[in-house]
User: Fold these one by one.
Assistant:
Number 1:
Amino acid sequence: MKLQHYLGGLEGLGPVSTETRIFVDVWETRIFGIHTAMMALSPQLPLPETPSTFKTIWTWADLRKGAESLNPFDYFKFRYYEKWLGGISGYFVDNGYITAEELDALTEEYYNEPSKPLPGAGDEAIDQRVVQYLVEGDSPKRDVAVTFEFKVGDTVAIRNVPTVEHTRLPGFLRNKFGTIETVYDGAYTYLCDTGPDGVGAAMPVYCVRFEPSDLWPDNAERNFSLYADLYAHYVEAPEAAEASKAA
């Protein structure tokens, strides 16, 4: 599991940024726009056809996987939208939209001539699809029948699932115990299949309450609780966890 998912409770990582601006530099707005357009133009969505040449699937999960594939020390070195830029650039190279050599050449070109105009755009059908996507969104809730194994008040154990590319389970919760606070109505999927991590078909989601003193013994403030919304695959009965350890 990657270091950047184990940060809860770690010390000595330097000052916490208190930056409140959504965008610090103008170029960051363009990266956000590119990401939004890629999501809206992904072919799996039931939206009107457009002349866009973007024909592969891109989701928030792909963006996160791109950032998380960075060496952890690079991950902490780069700013938020720099990680987005790296993930998006790698995706376009990996999916054949541009070669690494072409991307390097264009980068060098704009470094040498910063005032050079950026490529134009503005196809109305593409713009309308992006706007429709922003208005309608893409809910993870699915209308399928599922079985709820736990109820409010149950004590549960958090599994230590094998993670390859991406996970929705914070590292500091693995192998810990919590209490079911809320059982969400319905079944929920994710933006992509996380493979051996276990999130694929729609499943229940639970809000689990944790006591910080259990997560970080002798190193936590008192009189507050930590809550995490977790997919059912990450949660199991305490006796199942003990049986797994014994095996």
Number 2:
Amino acid sequence: MSRFAAVAFDLDDTLCRHDHDVNDLYRRAFEAAGVEPFGEPDELWPLLDGAPDPDDRVGYLGAGFARLAARYDRDVDPVALAEAFETVADDSRVAYLPGAVDALSAAAAAGPVGILTNGPERRQRSKVEALGLADRVDAIVYAGDLPRRKPHVEPFDRLTAALSVDPGETLYVGNSLSYDVAGAHNAGLRSAWLRADPDEAATPYGPDYVLDSLDELAALLTCDSGAESGADA
């Protein structure tokens, strides 16, 4: 028997990741913008400011390209580079993260399964279709199309209403402390933080559980699993 009535997941970097050849994507973005390449993808990612803004992905990437151009003393239009990057990227090129399929199956055995993503449907739908998620879950909420996104309460309220479950009996699994864990807490859901680094601390947030792999979810969902709260992790 499960300790939860329903389980829901974030999408990007929780259930799936992009499956591009990043070096090729980076090169083609410069080609599309008509700009002589500089830097490397591994130099760009650390210059991006926090999590992507679903409403302004071009601005988010453009700020990173602007910082990278300054390092190389290049006079370029960073917004044009960001627009080119978005143009050549294929959102359908995604793959499940390790353990994701089994985690979805374990969640389905516990009760209704949902997806709550901060991206808009126009961009996230291709990922959902590529992964066959529509056949695996009972509800999908695209918070990018709502007036408020995670960590606001509204998307989580939409999610639990769509699943016809009580928020307090729902587990939300996500990789972001500031969006997924904070949002679930605000809306009264239980949270399981999927951390990328086992040495990363949950502070200043307090997820109910901490997962180092989606393979750990099945045990967490079982009432007699003895799983410990992640608040002390």
Number 3:
Amino acid sequence: MKTFRIAVWVGVLILAGVLGAVQFYPTKSGDVVAESPYGVPFTLVSQSGQPITEQALRGKPTALFFGFTHCPEVCPTTLFELNGWMEKVDPKGDKLQAYFVTVDPERDTPEIMNEYVSNVSKRITGISGAPDKIAEVIKGFRVYAKKVPIDEKDPNGDYTMDHTASVFLLDSAGRFAGTIAYGENPDTAVKKLENLVNKG
């Protein structure tokens, strides 16, 4: 019986290795890059009120951040820092793009996203949409987002959002290429964006 259990576990490990090999392949530089575009197809609304799909994440390396406009610290800090890093790495603004997707579509209309993002950056585009569509994107991009009431005694009152604070890095084909953590050393963050641009 013990031998059978060991054989089963060995089989599971081999299967996991095969599935991992199918999902990823090594590049010439030794880095690991997803073989297919990260996330899921979507149709949302940009801060200008125009439809935007996952095709916007193709053609140029992309920095992708999920947050919300009522965020007290993480989101404004990340947007401000990301804008500065992009200006260093791509001063002309033609090699790198960035998007800020709301996790709070009930409050973050395209108009509010436009006002909020435009006050911080001209290089980052805000994205909103219907709550059900945003929920699909959050799930598809494996982002954590949860509504948290300000007052536990009033669950239907004012609220904040807990959410993933990392910036996702995608190559020009929309494939996952890494992350920049919240609070990342600025020099490290700039280097990651430089590497992303160089890989294309």
